[in-house]
Amino acid sequence: MFICFLLTLFLNCIIFIPTDVKSEQKTIFLQQEELKSYALTEWEQGYINWNKLDELLEQLQSEVSEPPKNATLGEGLQIIEEDSGVSLDRAAFTINFLEAFYKGEDSSIQVPKKTVYARVDKEMLKEITRKKLGSYTTFYNSTNKERSTNIMLSAKAMHGTVIFPGEVFSFNKTVGERTEKRGYKKAPVIVKGEFAEDIGGGICQVSSTLFNAVDLRGIQMIERFTHSRSVPYVPPGRDATVSWWGPDFSFKNLYNEPIVITARAAYGSLTVEVFSSETVEHFQDK
User: Fold this and answer.
1) Dihedral through CA 182, CA 187, CA 191, CA 196, nearest 10?
2) How confident is the model over 32-41, as a mean pLDDT?
3) Nearest to 49 by CA among 89, 2, 13, 88
4) What confidence tens digit (pLDDT) does each residue in 181-204 have?
5) 206, 126 in Cβ contact below 8 A?
6) 97-150 pLDDT, tens per residue?
7) How many alpha carbons lie under 13 Å from residue 217 in its C-beta half-sphere?
8) CA distances from 223 to 56, 58, 69, 250, 255 (A)
9) Integer angstrom CA distances of residue 246 from 70, 159, 223, 279
């Protein structure tokens, strides 16, 4: 309890010197007594309590970290550049902290940051949009505004998704929960063979169009369920029903290169395409 009290007191006493530039450093000021609170009490003076220091590192990480933003696709194959992020340089800060700790005096300690690069950059997107692997188009009634909205929202959420070799794509995780707050509307859905109204009605057309686009030799289907009755937008048996609390549609990338999905819904037409690099090839059996 005493250690927890000291930690709380210490964190409240940290003075952050704010910056507005990623590359600049923050600084914390520690008084001599605060530094001493990081010593192990059951040993002779001079041994660090590493558990307590880890708690400080986690606190600082939450203060300074900014996650990177991957490059993605805008309209069609237009590339929106990535943005790097920053993270706490834990090793460098630990050295700075130990120097101050063993000095035993009031100290200003730099909180070093390091750049975190985006996993997907514009150069990668350029490469993996060169070769079309698959494409499929379905049609819908654009005068049905609610259903059209749901189709367009889910297609937009999926557009630009990159799946690396060996990774599994999940429709539900990628598109997210379909809620009114996120703009989804009530529209007809099929429940146990009967039509009903529910939030997000129509997105099964998106998952079904995606299934037909990615039905390729280098794609392994992981999870796919068909509707309890035929649907009009794809041939019988070529659909993939999804529900946030129920079935998902997922598949694994068995190619040697990342693939990227594009999706466009407009004027009653939904097209999903799959691209990769010129050197893409199927590298393992299903």
Assistant:
1) 130
2) 86
3) 2
4) 999 987 766 554 434 445 668 899
5) no
6) 999 998 888 888 999 999 999 999 999 999 999 999 999 999 999 999 999 999
7) 8
8) 42, 37, 29, 5, 18
9) 29, 23, 12, 37
- How far apart, in whole angstroms, are the C-alpha atoms of residue 259 and residue 280? 9
DSSP designation for 83: B
Q: Give pTM, 2 decimals.
A: 0.80
Question: How far is residue 49 from each of residues 30, 42, 46, 61, 226, measured CA to CA in Å?
Answer: 16, 10, 10, 19, 57
> Helix crossing, 90-103 with 50-64: angle to 10°?
130
Supply the pLDDT for residue 245: 85
The answer on pLDDT for 3 being more than 50 is: no
210 and 261 Cβ atoms separated by less than 8 Å: yes
Q: Are 16 and 30 in contact (CB under 8 A)?
A: no
pLDDT at residue number 274: 98
230-280 pLDDT tens trace = 888 999 999 999 998 889 999 999 999 999 999 999 999 999 999 999 999
* Residue 40, both tokens: 């192990």
Q: How far apart are CA 263 and CA 181, in angstroms?
A: 22
Q: Identify whether the C-beta of residue 238 lies closer than 8 Å to the C-beta of residue 210.
A: no
Confidence label for 13 from pLDDT (cuts 50, 70 and 90): very low
Is there a contact between 248 and 170 (Cβ–Cβ < 8 Å)?
yes
E strand spans, the chain: 26-30, 72-73, 79-80, 85-88, 107-111, 113-116, 131-139, 161-163, 168-170, 186-191, 194-199, 219-223, 250-253, 259-266, 269-276
pLDDT of residue 190: 56
Amino acid identity of residue 121, one-letter, is D
The contacts of residue 283 (CB under 8 Å, 6+ apart) are 165, 218, 254, 255, 256
